[in-house]
Amino acid sequence: TASLLLWLVLLPAATAALADEAIPHRVLVGLNLFPNILSVTKGGAADQPQSDAYLLLLVYQNNSSRAEKLASKLRKSTKKINRRQVIVEAVAMDVLAQRQGIGLFLTEKIDDAALQEVSRIAVDRGALLFSSFEGDVEAGAMVGLDVRAKIRPFLNLSSLDRAGLEINAVLKRMSRTVE
């Protein structure tokens, strides 16, 4: 009985720890879509021949563990985009301004002020900002997911335009868009 009581006391804490480590399905779907969107996007930082590699930044505010797991997953699945090597880094919000990537992927839901700051950085640098989280595309992320009967890309055309990025016409036609 003492061990059962201990188990019942510790179960909620153990369950919470496991839930923290669980990565939402829409984030995993977004992570798989992210390099494909980058491969058909023209303009911005991707068109500037600064190196032979593309730097992709997985941005987090609080959960570095999730960001590192997602970065590892992306490194394994994406070796090249448009014949260029891919370098993937997990980056905290507070050092993002010091990094120069062609694509930014939000690994967790961040507060509105932080999203505005990340969006400003992405636009200023001509980098594509992808967020899988509901409401983020309307709030300034350039690309996300529209999850209804089926999952499809969701594009913020004005954010893309401000960053100097042009999305492939076929992709644009099959996506939900917002100005």
> What are the segments in which pLDDT stays under 50 over at least 5 consecutive residues?
1-20
Order of helical and strand elements: HHEEHEEEHEEEHEHE
Shape category: globular
Could you tell me the mean pLDDT? 86
Descriptive notes:
Helix content is 42%, strand content 26%. Residues 1-20 have low confidence and may be disordered. It is built from 6 helices and 10 strands, in the order ααββαβββαβββαβαβ. It is of the alpha/beta class. Helix 4 (112-125) links the parallel strand 5 and strand 6.
Q: How do you describe this structure in short?
A:
By secondary structure, this protein is α/β, with parallel strands linked by helices. Helices cover 42% and strands 26% of the residues.
Keywords:
single chain, 179 residues, 5-stranded mixed beta sheet, 3-stranded mixed beta sheet, 6 helices, disordered N terminus
Topology:
Elements: H1 2-21, H2 25-39, E1 41-43, E2 53-60, H3 64-77, E3 80-81, E4 84-92, E5 103-106, H4 112-125, E6 128-131, E7 143-147, E8 151-156, H5 157-162, E9 165-167, H6 169-174, E10 176-178
Parallel strand pairs: 2-4, 2-5, 5-6, 8-10
Antiparallel strand pairs: 1-9, 3-4, 7-8
